Fold these 4 entries.
Entry 1:
Amino acid sequence: MIITTTASVEGKKIVKYLGIVTGEAILGANIFRDMFAAVRDIVGGRSASYEKELGKARELALEALEDWAHELRANAVVAVDIDYECFGKTNGMMMVSVTGTAVVVE
């Protein structure tokens, strides 16, 4: 399946719009990773553990989006938007949501 952030697929004609599809993934942040990330924030640098978790959440959300598009018999999803959010009492949860339009292309 073609999944793209653009509104069209180069070289292909959209012949049918099937509707909006979404996918979400919510992951809890581990307290030990939180502590190490806080230390990393103080001394500078990237937090590899958070990057890994965000990557995992993004992949899960995109898989859910693709599954929904398959159910609609789409062969592509266009105009995909990826959003990241932290929430929970102490911002201990991370959410990735993806939204796009399921289409059929020639």
Note: The mean pLDDT is 85.
Entry 2:
Amino acid sequence: MKRIVMLTAATLLLAVGCTKIDYVGKEFSPTVDVDIFFSLDDVEREYEVMGHVTATADDMVSAEKMQEEILKKAREKGADAVVILGLERYSTSTPATWSETTKTEETETGTKTTTTGTSSSGTEEQKEIRATFLKYRRL
């Protein structure tokens, strides 16, 4: 029993700290050094936009950790630079669920039906970072 509880706790800890990365765009050979910018106006070299990325995570994951994951993905996809476009926070809600139990019993005065129920729903704070991957044009 103790082992099941420990495994469940470990699984929850892993799930809480995850950043989900969605990338759409071109791929090149992996890179090692990736420049980071916060405005396209700051990029002084000729470039092409190679793709866009959205990173999402729950509020317990730091924005720094999310940025590290974006840079890791940029290196994997062969980007020379990343432009962070913005950080947003929002709440997501889980749909309400309803659980109902109906009990019927015979009494001296007839049939008695009792229905009890519970409902639950929740909200979760999320973060989202959007970024653009750039490939420098070779001169």
Note: The longest helix spans residues 2-16.
Entry 3:
Amino acid sequence: MSKLHKGLNTQVANLAVLFVKLHHHHWYVPGPNFYLLHEKFEEFYDEVNELYDAVAERLLMIGGKPFSKMKDYLANTTLVEAKGNETAVEMVESIANDFKTIRKEFNALIKVAQAEGDEVTTDLLLGAVTSLDKHIWMLEAFLSK
């Protein structure tokens, strides 16, 4: 398995775990920011779902085999599942940290894709990093006091 295939597969796992975590937070966000965060988490999981599919399909296009089972996602993710008892602030912090982890790993994968001359994968990842940067900025602004 090439380094690019392995890295993209890790991101398939990350995006699957994040998709589930965002649903959990969407359903269970407590407190006075419920409506705001309920809507925001839904926006995020819709976006993550599209990216999850795009990364998996790109991996297929370049000869890889994306993970497609929960046990594989959990065994290969670099993220942590929701605990189930988070406060609203902890939920936002967790998602911001997940976005930062994925952004860091995407940036490393961009270099791998460029080294392999794969500009299509590079473009896919660059677009995602742009979106992640904005989400991180907004979540950190929400958390500031």
Note: The first helix runs from residue 3 to 28.
Entry 4:
Amino acid sequence: MSLVTRDVEILSDRFTPGFVLRGPVGGGEAMVLRSPWDGVELARVPTTTADDLDMVLDKARLAFESFRWTPAWRRAQILERASRLIEENAEQIARLIANESGKPLKDARIEASRGASTFRWAAEESKRTAGEIIEMDAEASGEHRFGWTIREPRGVIAAISPFNFPLNLAAHKVAPALAAANVVVLKPASQTPLTALRLAELLVEAGLPAHVIQVVVGPGSTLGAKLVKDERVNMVTFTGSPPVGRQIASDAGMKMVTLELGNNSATIVDEDAHLDLAVQRIVAGGYANSGQVCISVQRVVVHQKVYDEFMARLVPAVEALKLGDPLDESTDVSSLISAAEAERVRLWVEEAIEQGATLAVGGVDDDGRMRPTVLTDVTRDMKVCAREIFGPVLSILKARDLCEAVEISNDSDMGLQAGVFTKDLNKALYAAKRLEVGGVMINEVPTFRVDHMPYGGIKGSGIGREGLRFAIREMTEMKMVAIREMDWQTGGPPVDACAREPLGP
């Protein structure tokens, strides 16, 4: 049996003129993609069957046997070329992202730029995948021995990426995997396969050998589950919901697993905070990509002394945001990824209001879309606080002091990143030590991320770290090598060949 590559059938003129995209290998039923904004049909994408996936994995194993020996300079060259190709095609990629995910175009352009940066960092880090020297003679039994570690690629990495950053979160899996000489089977979210397919095309154009990157398209419940369980896969890296992440951890067996599972990010605004800065960053961090970011600001814990002043600045800033078509250059917030997600967020907001919360601004517009929303008088047990809302909603809470603000922030079974606004260094250090998260951003929102920093959470937010250098550590196996110095004639300790008899008087 051989696989047939079919073109994606483009059904809309919303893409770059003349745009053509090759489909994944496979003979499954074509999947129709629709715009999250207005439901217009965008494309029909051929899907990957279970039989197809068997062949994909066989080809991946064969590709690994040769690609694993690719020298670092060559891997760096491919990744650098990929970075340049992403930059050269940035507008085309941004329109792909905006169309299939509903992300505002200006945000999609930022994602395209970050994707290029991620591959550029991967090119640099591919030159630094060596191990380290081990001081064997630090122990008496290690005398006359020399030791070092080697980092070796794991093999076939299954990368399961989400819809909210269809380029850059795929890049954070694919780029370090390739930098470390692994091969990748990439399964993008069913709602956003086009960007992943275009990324694979650009990598091949950059010089990546055949089958080192392969994209499979289909539902996670079947295709993704088979990937996770298959013995030909050596590692799974996943970004998505906590329930799916826990299932992957259970199904993966002895495979290495990296899981990034989201958050209900808290931001603390202390009494001495720079309020204009805090408001500006909280609005940016709460409503970027319509709040569909793992580290979106969700809970804002404000010192009671500045609460009224903070709210007087926050509400008009939120009201000024424009809800609209993602392809409109002036749009700040657009639709959620699906009508079902919009309905879920609406129900959570309504439930909070029924339980005593106050709608300060926002709510549902006449077309049923969620406007940028702020809720006050919330309690910690409401869904809008206790769970990840993944929508354009901020919940504002009061605290008596920084200690209580930290306690409120830690009252969560998730812990990805948190933000703290304060001018007091001692308070900043206190918060940095006491907040139960994987990253603390001082005078910044938890939504802040640069692509080479370590990124990941604790508690229910997952296991492992992304960020190129840190992801490469997890995508490689450590091998210890020790060599014994010896006298080859006697088998004993080595003789100093340069030793001299002492000079006479």
Note: The chain has 15 helices and 23 strands.
